[in-house]
Amino acid sequence: MATWDLSQTTHHVLICNGGSCMRKGGEEVTVAIRESITRAGLDDVVHTTRTRCNGRCEDACVVIVYPEGIWYENVTPEDADLLVEQHLSKGEPVKSLMTHRFMPGGFARTESARRGILKSEKVKK
Ligand code: FES
């Protein structure tokens, strides 16, 4: 397995490959984003990682981009080029897919984002 040189990395893209996201096309989203990154010539500056569940399954497919701390929902393979061109190339997050953005003091939720439940509210069955 390769060990990447991350010294020039500008963005880290976490692509959820948990069960719910995989049922909503997580593999296709992963491939589409990675191919779009390659086409855009960003392989040396954008690192991608497949993750397990990120705890926002109703938002499947979930994609998260750092360092901005942007959480995206309902990502499809057709969104890959927009995410890459607008966010990773130009630094402008795609507002129509955003649910959260990291701010000093915590994540800010967009108006349309599902609130979800706090972990402390989780009902035990
Ligand atoms: S499986 Fe992707 S958020 Fe749960």
Overview of this structure, please?
With 125 residues, the protein is of the alpha+beta class. It has a single domain, classed as Glutaredoxin, CATH 3.40.30. It is 23% helix and 23% strand. The protein is built from three helices and six strands, in the order βααβββαββ. The protein has a six-stranded mixed β-sheet with strand order 2-1-3-4-5-6, with helices on one face. Helix 2 packs across helix 3. It is globular. The N and C termini lie far apart (41 Å). 28% of the residues are buried. The mean pLDDT is 96. Bound molecules: FE2/S2 (inorganic) cluster (FES).
User: Structural class of the helices, strands and pairings?
Assistant: alpha+beta
Helix coverage percent: 10-25%
How many individual helices?
A: 3
Which overall shape is indicated by the principal axes computed on the Cα atoms? Answer: globular
Query: Which CATH architecture?
Result: 3-Layer(aba) Sandwich
- Distinct small molecules: FE2/S2 (inorganic) cluster
- Low-pLDDT parts are none
CATH class: Alpha Beta
Which percent range describes the beta-strand content?
15-25%
CATH fold name: Glutaredoxin
Strand order of the largest sheet: 2-1-3-4-5-6
Number of strands: 6
Measured on Cα atoms, how large is the radius of gyration?
A: 15 Å
Mean pLDDT value: 96
Summarize the main sheet. Answer: 6 strands, mixed
Taking the alpha carbons of the first and last residues, their distance comes to 41 Å
Secondary-structure element series: EHHEEEHEE
CATH homology group: Glutaredoxin
Question: Can you tell me the number of structural domains?
Answer: 1
